[in-house]
Design goal:
Length: 276
């Protein structure tokens, strides 16, 4: 699957999902509407991320947008206007929002392959990704305040990955400020900047490299690093130490050194799918 699948088909599924060679491919598939998000897509994304989280054969995921112009332009504002408000409820965040891997408690690596403009709620898929690869023509902006809405979750994520002034400039200036991909790369929001034709190939190379490693060790390593953003240094190190010690009981912690010593490829342990 590539970001150009079904680019002109308005009757195609709004979210495309494919699994191949331990990698999940997720494509936001509304190119005729800037790959914007609808209320109907929320349960789809919850199901997709649940599959990524629970399928032991999946070791990494790539999320992208259909076409070459837009990655995701946020909520479909026309649909919001027609409905008279947002479709999400008023409960806690953990009960209402399921766009990103972080919001679905996915502890497998996620690569965001940014193929074009990212705006508003589309930033969920960027700030909560583990690695961001962007085409050099892509750009990032936040338009919540332009349509009378509060920039919050995505913008807090921006403040974790950008200098505060840049995050606030995007948040407060709205559509009047676009962060170009090259500048986003210089500031650290983007990890790899490539020509458009190299976007998916680069994302797949990263995903394949990750998928070759111990799934259990990768998952716990991701948890250790992300947790450090929400804790003091000593507390984060203590949590990391507990994960490290816990993994000593896992078969992969013995298989890895043994395979290295025997000069062969390791055979990682695959856990069973959780029961529903």
């Amino acid at each position: 699957m590539t970001g150009t699948d079904a680019a002109g088909d308005q009757t195609a599924p709004e979210v495309l999902f494919e699994k191949r060679d331990h990698i999940a491919y997720i494509t936001l598939n509304r190119p005729h509407k800037g790959n914007s998000l609808t209320g109907a897509m929320m349960p789809m994304m919850k199901d997709v991320w649940g599959e990524v989280r629970d399928d032991p054969d999946i070791r990494a995921a790539i999320v992208t947008g259909a076409g070459e112009k837009h990655f995701c332009t946020g909520a479909d504002v026309d649909a919001v206007a027609l409905r008279g408000g947002m479709s999400t409820g008023t409960g806690p965040l953990t009960d209402e929002v399921y766009w990103s891997p972080h919001q679905n408690r996915v502890w497998k690596p996620v690569i965001s392959a940014v193929n074009g403009l990212v705006a508003g709620a589309g930033l969920h898929f960027v700030v909560d990704a583990d690695i961001v690869v962007a085409a050099d023509h892509a750009a990032f902006m936040d338009t919540h305040v332009n349509v009378g809405l509060v920039g919050a979750m995505e913008n807090i994520g921006l403040a974790k990955r950008l200098p505060l002034g840049t995050a606030l400039r995007m948040t407060l200036m709205g559509r009047d400020y676009r962060l170009p991909a090259e500048r986003a790369y210089q500031l650290g929001l983007v990890d790899e900047l490539v020509a458009p034709g190299e976007l998916m190939e680069t994302a797949e190379q990263i995903a394949r490299s990750i998928a070759a490693n111990s799934p259990a060790a990768v998952s716990l390593s991701k948890q250790a690093v992300w947790n450090s953003l929400e804790a003091g240094y000593s507390q984060a190190c203590e949590y990391g130490w507990s994960l490290l010690r816990m993994h000593w009981a896992h078969p992969d912690s013995k298989e890895g050194p043994r395979a290295f010593s025997e000069r062969r490829e390791p055979q990682w342990t695959t856990v069973a799918r959780p029961e529903k």
